[in-house]
Amino acid sequence: xxxxxxxxxxxxxxxxxxxxxxxxxLDLAPGxxxxxxxxxxxxxxxxxxxxxxxxxPDAGTVRLAGRDVTADGAAAxxxxxxxxxxxxxxxxxxxxVLQNAVLGAIGAAGRPWRLWRxxxxxxxxxxxxxxxxxxxxxxxxxxxxxxxLSHGQRRQLEVAVALTLAPKAFVMDEPMAGLGADGSRGMxxxxxxxxxxxxxxxxxxxxxxxxxxxxxxxVLVQGRVIxxxxxxxxRANAEVRAAYLGEDA
Length: 249
Ligand SMILES: Nc1ncnc2c1ncn2[C@@H]1O[C@H](COP(=O)(O)OP(=O)(O)OP(=O)(O)O)[C@@H](O)[C@H]1O
Description:
alpha/beta, 6-stranded mixed beta sheet, 4-stranded antiparallel beta sheet, globular, binds adenosine-5'-triphosphate, ATP binding, ABC_AA/LPS_Transport, BCA_ABC_TP_C, ATP hydrolysis activity
């Protein structure tokens, strides 16, 4: 396999007596979507936090593009090309779509900013932001306030902000959450396209989306990876069916 873009080895995190991550290892290869699934409380958010630098692991390492980033915080990992989208929106609701995307682009370039107006006069950042909005299908809404967008459009904007980082890898936390059938279809098509730009570590409860998108799936149960494999392998895995998917999967 090609050198992984993201490589997690032996991540372990305890909260008191509870082991939320137990020796978790997984790779994200170029061009792939690697989905992480598991029941509520399995440790998916804890894993994402450790990958993105918001939760310090008790043990284990995270490497991004061959570099050990375990000691780096979330901002440094983002600047290094790890683009995260959030389960709960982190957008500035009173600002416009373009302003949100431009701020992402300015942050990615490491340029300081103080006011909105100077931000929008940063031509490189505006160009980067506009390209990202076009990519996710939001260019017609550039001047809209985020507060006026639909839930699905906000999720698209989250992806656009992540794109302005020119990421090496995406980490997406439930991008389908709250989307209707049409929204899920649109987001599924977008992610299938985006993975060629940068591979995606995808935490997602929507199994239709996971089965449609994932090149590989890792199943977390009680903090442990109990299986990693293709969609067909995971569907056929008896332990996974018993622990999570149920007999009708
Ligand atoms: N800061 C914390 N302090 C104590 N326990 C925690 C903390 N964060 C998470 N946990 C516990 O760790 C376990 C894993 O939680 P986590 O949120 O990572 O699971 P999850 O798979 O993301 O769940 P969900 O699908 O419901 O979002 C749970 O038992 C949770 O209660």
